[in-house]
DNA sequence: CTGAAAGCGCTTACAG
DNA sequence: CTGAAAGCGCTTACAG
């Protein structure tokens, strides 16, 4: 089934293809009567311009590239939810690129070759060198890029993020103010940008209170962290636990309770994400709330402005955080 | 910064652009020496062919469209994980299209206009009429389409799925064989294709055992289902519960335990997904395991074969399911 | 307001 | 094995 092209429309409406193109892109430039006639034919034929041809001719693909690491992580898919909704509103298509650290350069060149009009960079498993690769490629290709839930210290690229340092600091301080002394931070073995910031905020609060920061690294894999926590209880005293991931906090609570501890009486527990896990645990989990959907939505909105060269208030947006009080703290 | 084009490469390597193109697409057709020379220049200039132009000329975009409803649902993002991994391996790009039921026709035409080479259809909130829209558009545009975790009774489109009817039947039967009588199925108020199949399997098992099927519809929203379950316990007797979603099963257990019930002693509970929720509940949740990542991966693999017109063993693939025994049953 | 023509950056028969 | 040329389906100055 041959798709109808602009030529078919032009022929049926007895105008040139230039006029059909104008009807679609600059309708005010064409005589109302002609316009109506063309519009009618377009409708009859069910004509939709070939996005690829349009992209080549106009050098605009109205497509953005989203660079992620692991889409199955809840925070990533939440952010994508916000991105998708806003992109739809502004009629941009979305291409997904997954990039591991080793092939970052390759992926970036690939994204450029795919002619996206803008880039949303979500991958947060980066070190300094890898960050440099992203910046270099984005600048060279001259493609507007917004870092989403990531930021680079030198502020060379626009970003949308939450103040994880301050949020974690506040939550840790709250626990300290309740009289907790042996407060642990559960973090991940693998390094993530946001987790590093959370660690920073935790350490700051602990240092201020002259308490020793204790970071315990485990895995997001439940059976691994269960084993870690099981062993943990044989030789650590603890009265407070904050976890970079809610699911790890929930798993900790389960192990603690099976070891006879009472939560929150014996141990205060809190998460730093506010996912659905926090609502489905027993007791429910007090959390730092980080508006992940909003981060995606706001980043996409900022990107549309950048792509259209509209004025923007700020290239560096920090969304507000809050603490959601539940049963565990 | 002007991107390097095929002309730049041709000029620098002192060959025609046709030869450069051949080096990239049919290297065996060009003299090894010329080939090396061109390859060297390509590398030096960091040349990557413009994917849009290539798409227009070859009428192949090496892009597939994935049509989803809500990306934030765990099963959807898991499937996308499988799709992304396989697509990467076969060098296809992925465009995401979200479609609500009302705008399905619009979305389908949009997908066609974007010139994708293949379609993966994941949206499972469909009724008969909407299904017809998908089939019609896919056929008309002549774009290979694989239904992913959905299938249509008349088998007009290829699909990859799990036998939800049989899986749920087996799980229900297991509960019945343990002597449970008042077994409820917790399903959703909104209708999903797979949930309807699960209901069917449950009803079949109950009918066979001459027990009355009882379907209780609630929401995925925790506060709503908590209220539902709270009220539920004032006037229902129950000794078994199976839930189309793990998270709903977990929430039910929490409410039940707070109401003084013991699980699994008083009430056997099981989920029909096997998500991470099942590992993080107390007690852990026995589940029907549905290999969602694999569904995505296998569907994408099937689609590559269809797009390349390779031979396929079967257009209708049913992946195996199993029951994962844990503490709740 | 409208049309003829060039051009976007590639691929692909067709000659040679 | 290689090049000249047409063409993919559009957009966009440029004339008129």
Computed structural class of chain A: alpha/beta
- Count of helix runs of chain A: 13
The low-pLDDT segments of chain A are none
Approximate strand percentage of chain A = 15-25%
Quaternary organization: homodimer
Which whole number gives the mean pLDDT of chain A?
93
> What fold name stands as the CATH topology of the domain at 164-289 in chain A?
Rossmann fold
How would you spell out the order of helices and strands of chain A? HHHHEHEHEHEEHEHEHEHEHEHEE
The CATH architecture term of the domain at 164-289 in chain A is 3-Layer(aba) Sandwich
Physical arrangement of strands within the biggest beta sheet of chain A: 2-1-3-4-5-11
Radius of gyration of chain A: 25 Å
**Helix percentage range of chain A:** 40-55%
**Global geometry of chain A:** elongated
Q: What is the CATH homology-level superfamily of the domain at 164-289 in chain A?
A: Response regulator
Distance between the termini of chain A: 63 Å
Major pleated sheet of chain A:
6 strands, parallel
Largest interface: A-B, 55 and 55 residues
Tell how many strands the DSSP assignment of chain A holds: 12
Name the descriptors.
homodimer; 329 residues; alpha/beta; 434 Repressor (Amino-terminal Domain); Rossmann fold; six-stranded parallel sheet; six-stranded mixed sheet; 13 helices; DNA-binding
How would you describe the overall organization of this protein?
Two copies of one chain form a homodimer. Chain A is elongated. Chain A is of the alpha/beta class. Chain A has helices at residues 6-13, 17-25, 32-45, 51-58, 74-89, 104-113, 128-141, 164-177, 193-208, 222-235, 246-258, 277-280, 292-307; strands at 63-68, 93-98, 118-121, 145-148, 159-162, 183-188, 214-218, 240-243, 268-271, 286-289, 316-319, 322-324. In chain A, helix 12 links the parallel strand 9 and strand 10 (286-289). Among the domains of chain A are: 1-58, 434 Repressor (Amino-terminal Domain), CATH 1.10.260; 164-289, Response regulator (Rossmann fold, 3-Layer(aba) Sandwich). Chain A has a six-stranded parallel β-sheet, covered by helices on one side. A six-stranded mixed β-sheet of chain A has the order 7-6-8-9-10-12, with helices on both faces. In chain A, 47% of the residues lie in helices and 16% in strands. The structure holds a DNA duplex (16 and 16 nucleotides).
